[in-house]
Amino acid sequence: MPARESAIGAVFETLGFALFLREEPGGLKLAGEAPAWLKEIWPGAAQSGAMLEVSELSPFLENFLIDAGECWTAGGTSRVKSGPWIEGTDLELEATALSVNGQAVLLIEQLGKDFETRKAVLQKARETVIAYQRLNTEMQKKEILLHCIAEDMTGALGNVITSLRLIELEHDPLKTRRLLELAMLATQEQQNIIHRVLDVFADELESLYGRAGKNQADAEVHDVMQRALGAVQSEYQEKRVRLTASGFGTLRVAVDAGHLERVFVNLLENALHATPAGGEVKVRIEAEADTVLLQFDDGGAEIHEEVSEKLFAKFDCSEARPQATALRLHFCRIAIENCNGEIGHTSLGTAGNRFWVRLPGFHPAQ
Amino acid sequence: MIQKKICMIGTSGVGKTSLVARFVSSIFSDKYLTTVGVKIDKKVLTVDGTNVTLVLWDLAGDDDFQRLQLSYLRGTAGYILVADGTRQITLDQLLDIQARVMEAVGPVPFVLALNKADLQTQWEIGKERIEQLTAQGWHILLTSAKTGAGVEEAFSDLSRMLLAPKP
Ligand SMILES: Nc1nc2c(ncn2[C@@H]2O[C@H](COP(=O)(O)OP(=O)(O)OP(=O)(O)O)[C@@H](O)[C@H]2O)c(=O)[nH]1
Ligand SMILES: [Mg+2]
Fold first, then answer.
1. Taking a contact as any Cβ pair under 8 Å apart, which residues of chain A between 101 and 120 contact chain B?
2. Phi, psi of B140 (to 5 degrees)
3. Domain boundaries, chain A
């Protein structure tokens, strides 16, 4: 009998199982040899005849013994598994409680290869679910974006159509001229929107596939600013918002001039939209050691700094600004960050908001 | 010494394991290694001059592949609900899970950690949603296992709730 018992014990040891038998009263006592892992983590319980002091050693087993107790009481062929657990060390263990001929048994095994496979499958499955969720939201956002773009374009197109209809009925040449100007503005607005959309997608493509030969881009900040100021001038006049620019000297930056102009126009439009009629927008250009700093101060409602970061997301969930504005700022951020610049927002309290851009200076290759 | 069991609860990938790793060992990893089963850690915390040993039960995320095993919750003094602020759906699912947990363990204290607060540009959970849950009496913290922001507070706020005399 003892020979048979020790043979069984040796099998368990080889398989990496620790076999405990419940004794009345007292607790769980190791039967047979202790597997290596048991000696390593619970040396006290690995001595032959020693008790497994669960309350001291393992909160997990202490909890599991309640389920095990129910199983042992039920007797018969019932068995219950603890599920995998890790505690104190890196060892992954799993316990099983069962009854054998009325004897309550607790088996603890160190999980091996099979478990690794199970984990790998779960890992893949969960990563896939998460990727699917992200894709889903991305698609929803794209739908909203498309909707916003369509709304923006329809708005501008509506203005063109109305102007044209009125021109048809109008005989006064002065009024006709005014209507033509309005129609022109609206078509320009529409063109801007289209450019913005194209830019965003072009930049997204570039960030995926890289851009060739952008390193030698070079622009003179004041020139570009003058062009941008010219582009938004009529919109500012229309809304009666004063626009002042300060800062002098030749400042060259390592940025593509066309891109930079569109960034400036976007920021100027952003400032105009935020500023109430009759207000003021101030632009300041400043040379720093190795960079150029531009500041756009508007007279809009204060945007708190906690939401600053979100302003430049393609979808501003903070509702601090309408969606079309978010797209505008998102484009600016992509364009500026692509040329190693920085863009940000600082609250000016009740006075308004400052959007700033820091651009790397241009150093021609030696 | 006072010892309290705390369970980490939420769907997969929200950052339960990362929050515990940040809190217990001040470490963070970008790599996602899913938890299968339970991982238990301990940490001693001093709350208003009282030392308390927290026994942290980091549970596998409740999802279609693995349901939350309610027997693991037995004896828990409180729990931390974790949602991923960049995936709104994890908060929706968490509300279902919370109802199941509440049924199993009764009205023990809990806090809600809206994790990954460092990923502001991907954030999806609106202020109104937070206000609405706060109005229901939920204690909510924005946490980041990556930067550590709000992590210590989440555990110490919950511990304070556990140590407070019962009304
Ligand atoms: N940026 C960022 N990433 C985080 C943060 N917390 C967790 N992560 C990442 O999110 C992923 C999942 O984190 P885990 O801590 O494993 O998530 P879990 O809730 O334990 O997941 P399951 O065990 O599968 O239920 C990992 O890639 C982490 O690096 C955080 O605060 N910020
Ligand atoms: Mg985990």
1. 115, 118-119
2. -115, 135
3. 3-111, 112-214, 215-366
